[in-house]
Amino acid sequence: MSETLGFGNADGIGRSPPTWAERPPIFVDLIQSGNGRRMVALKLEIDRTAVSTDALPELLERSGELGTLASHLVGVATTSAGHLCLIGGEAGVGKTALVRRFCNQQGGTRVLWGACDPLFTPQPLGPLMDIASRIGGELLRLGGSRARPYEVAAALLGELRGAAPSIVVLEDLQWADEATLDVMRLLSGRVESAPALVIATYRDDELGRVHPLRFLLGEIPRHESVSRIKLQPLSAAAVAALAGSAGVDAGELYRKTAGNPFFVTEALASADEDQIPATVRDAVLARGARLSPEGRALLDAVAIVPQQAELWLLEAVSPEQFHALGECLNSGMLARQNGSVAFRHELARMAIDDSIPPDRALQLHRRTLQALANPSHASPDVTRLAHHAEAANDSEAMLRFGRAAGERASALGAHREAAEQFTRSLRVAELLPPGEHADLFQLLAQERLHTNQADLAIEAQARAINLYLEADDSLNRADALRRQSRLFMCGGRGAEAEEPILEAIRVLEQLPRSRELALAYSGLVMFYMNHDNAEGVIRTAPLALDLAEQVGDSETLLHTLNSLGTTELLKGDPRGKEKLLRSLDMAEELGMDEHVGRAYINLASASVQARMYDDGLVELISRGVDFSREHGLELWRMWLLSSLAEVYLDRGDWSRAVEVAESVMKGEKGQLPRVSVLPILAVVRARRGDPAVWPLLDEAQAMAEREGELQFAVPVCIARAEAAWLEGRIEAIAGETEAAFQKATALGAWWQVGEMLCWRRRAGLDDDIPSMLPDRYKAELQGDWSRASELWSALGCEYDAAIALAGADDDARLRESLLKLQRLGARAAAAVVARKLRARGAQGISRGPRASTQRNAAHLTVRELEVLDLVRSGMKNAEIANRLFLTPKTIDHHVSAILRKLSVESRSQAAREATRLGLLN
After folding, report:
1. What is the distance between the alpha carbons of residues 701 and 714, in angstroms, rounded to a whole number?
2. Distance between CA 681 and CA 875 in Å, rounded?
3. Of 179, 293, 632, 880, which alpha carbon lies 20 to 30 A from 917's?
């Protein structure tokens, strides 16, 4: 059957244009432009409730996409395993039209439809609540509470598991709030557990580099349960087919519309068929002008309510015009939606809304605000109330509802929306007493931190501090100073963190002993921990713990245990991990999400810094990443990913290290987690002999200097030392490491100096060796290169093992180093060792494995390649464990990873695939 799109019968030359009721309903899209102004684009939409499937015209150039969706639904029905299909395309390309057409074709299949709100600040979990209003049950109950995204996802999946195969549509995800995106993340990983086809649409032309949805799309795994459809504009031939019977120049039409279906349709539907409407607004307003005065007035009332207007609300706001609702529906301007009405697309609403005179718009928003504040059948929706309060210029309502909406969004993990709501209230907060005004800034600062906007958080907190001073509120001002110290440390300005925390303690010690003082002591412990001042940690921690016990404050207790445990773990004391795990358990029990995230961060970071690589570390980091994602802790998630990238780097999985590091780099330039991944990206480039190493290292150095903490300065100076060594500039190593080395030595932070000492020794410097230094460093510094290499290999750090051997003075060890480096693809380091061998007169120096081996298409780690080689030789796991001095359990994990990465099911298949890919010599 040929694909056509018409208005029922095609318009002929000389015919009058069809009536508004005869034309296809027009939906509109809203585009957020780069400067924040709302622009417009259009799309054609079919109302699935208006006509039968047989009566609907064919969609041009969409049969392939319809077939793909149908195939996915058949797969769901056959296997009872769910599928997620992501449909992207520019505004107006017809995403909703495609999905509605597909749903119309499925007969009795249950369709659950939810759409994201184009509010100034999105409604938390908006599309899920649309679905909940239809299916009721646990999902609806959760919608009325402060449910977490993972609870909502579990409830939705539970509902879907108990029913026949369903279609779930989540529309316009580019407008989704953070909580909805978190639910999407969970659904993407668990969709196979329920018999449902989940279809999610979004506008890819609105997704900037740091748009939250772009990050989500990048994180959704490539799996057979997930597919993507990119919807393209119409071709020139399709536009010509539409234009042929309308008597317009098809070439000119295509040039002006670029094949956008909605623009094409609106141009052809224009009353003046000799010209294309200059703007979509003109087309929408012309269509509305055909209505009676009462109908146009009712359109105004619907237009000022984003997404949809309930019938009871319309009756309350426009009682005299309510009788014209049928006229608006028949005209195609509005459509029915579950007891409400709405424009068929947002652009039409915006066009009408922008045309309303300011005095009438103000009157309508005030009536709407009053009606929504006193609903007859449900609790007031503070998010909608905050929106209308601002539009109604009602300062008191903006303060009341904006703060309430912000607190609700924060509780749901929608921290960006919470920040916008608090910002809304702050526009009129001068009406408040200084103390209450300060409270709002402090709430805003907390949300800015959650969304990885530390500089804005620091700015907001500074305003709060000044307002508490104006209010003569010493207690809250001191507590605000404590919070500011923490923001400085989280925001890459750790060198500025000491003054506010010391001032907070000075003020609080003059007041009655309080919880605030206990928290301030704990804040000072954290400052000392971050700055590797173990003596300060040990001196101050008892003050915090004792006072916490006196005032009965669990937050101070778990926070101090976290800092104290981190310091101990860095020093190699296993009791530190026990304290951190206790802190984690307490935080989880008390529901303190931030502290749960901090426990995960410090467990990961301290383990990585101390090179404590047990089999459970990656799993622990993954749990922390999942927790942070589910609870909207974006900054926490970035920190955990930076630790994960470091693990992959140290264990030789450089491609994965780069992949994870680059996901952290997608945030705003200058945000603190970048300083941890910049050296990772730089050293991988340097080791592989790739260009553009020093720009990354220079940025990292500038950030580390601003932060003033060894935990950032040391990795940066080590990376710079290694890059200089790889370039043959050994004389530069002393200068690159001197400042951090001297600072660590002065602090007695011996746990920070091991790697620096080794690089300085390679440059000919002879520094004192601390007695507490781990044996892997001592062995190299004492000239026992083989012992150092063995210790590094036992940790799975083969690059470090090879570099340790590179200092040897005999050919055998140097050849061993060269082989390790070549297998890792460390071309630059391998060249350094090869030159050393040649200088010693060595012959027959290996040129390394084949290019196919270096590419390592399966992304196996060095250890996995070693295990695979022994598997190919026919050895059992126990024999491999004995050969490599590892536990059988560890070998089991390696073999499982090899089978997964090679996409095979047996050891023999793995051996054959390795041979085919050229992974082994």
Report:
1. 10
2. 37
3. 880
Beta bridge partner(s), residue 430 = none
Cα–Cα distance list, 296 to 369, 687, 786 (Å): 21, 69, 86
Dist CA 467 CA 472 (whole Å): 9
Helix (H, G, I), strand (E, B) or coil at 42: strand
Distance CA 767, CA 867 (A): 38
Spatial CA neighbour of 429 closest among 462, 405, 476, 463 = 463
Distances (CA, A) of 772 to 125, 661, 777, 842: 53, 32, 10, 38
Tell me which DSSP letter residue 231 carries: P
Single pTM value for the model: 0.68
Structure token pair of residue 106 = 């499925």
Residue 110: strand pairing partners: 166
- Residues with Cβ within 8 Å of residue 144, at least 6 apart in sequence: 379
Tell me which H or E stretch contains 113: strand 110-115
Is the CA virtual torsion 343, 349, 352, 357 positive or negative?
Answer: positive
The DSSP 8-state label assigned to residue 32 in this structure reads: E
CA nearest to 490, candidates 447, 521, 453, 465: 453
State the amino acid at position 804 in one-letter form.
A
Enter the tokens of residue 915. 């041979």
Q: Give the position of tokens 């908006």.
A: 126
- Output the six-digit token pair for 419: 């920040």
Tokens in use for 680?
């990772």
- The dihedral built from the CA positions of residue 807, 810, 816 and 822, taken in this order, carries a sign that is positive
| Phi–psi pair at 230, nearest 5 degrees | -105, 110
62-86: string of b/e by CB count within 10 Å (b at 16+)? beebbeebeebbebbeeeeebbbbb
Q: What is the pLDDT of residue 270?
A: 58
Query: How many angstroms separate the most distant Cα atoms in the chain?
Result: 100
What is the average pLDDT value for the chain, to the nearest integer?
A: 85
